[in-house]
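Hi R.,

Here's the chain you asked about this morning:
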Amino acid sequence: MLNQAKKAYQPISLARAIAPVLPTQKIKELLSKPTSESVSFLIVRHPFDRLLSAYRDKMERKNRYYYNLYGKEIVRKYRERGIARFGHKFYQRNMNNGAPMVVPGRKGSEPTFWEFVTAIIEDELMDDHWMPISDLCSFCRKGLNYNVIIKYENMAAEERYLLNRLNVEDLIIPQWENRYPGQPIDQHIRDAYFNLLNEEEINDLFQLYEMDFHLFGYEMDMKYLIRIR
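And the predicted structure, written out as tokens:
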């Protein structure tokens, strides 16, 4: 299994230091309080878009922290298989260094999307940024209920609803953090990356995130499983 080194000096690590993960019983106690005292909410996203967003932000360009944590080992383990599958030309500079489109700052030493996905499927490589939300948030544990589930795709409207429910719309100004500097994910970008995977790999990913698909009402585009040869 790929080495998962200790995290440090990352926003999520600092947040965990200030607000560590609570024991299940403590979470149940907090969530069982009357709604007048507390509101529990969860933000979810289409599993494949969340996975792709994590790759583009953490792996596609040289993010030194995530390259040292995961990327270097992913490349060492899967680059030879990647070359055998996609060919040497795919990894050349004039072919975007293994990316399906132009990625400013990419050098070619970073993992490709296929290499990243293969590490997840074969090595069970997990991180908070792409772990299934149903696992990350203990969603299925008995006694853990959320008052509000916000979908990333409807963030603007649903965030306003939450702020209004909390009666803090005049106190909190929504803002984006960790926004990917390039073009946001749309159907064209989604296709460009997921078309690098075969039907078996897509199915493996679906099984990995199946609970998220079902719990949060997302669907998988079947065209990724039915390819025209």
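The longest strand covers residues 41-44.

Let me know if you need anything else.
M.
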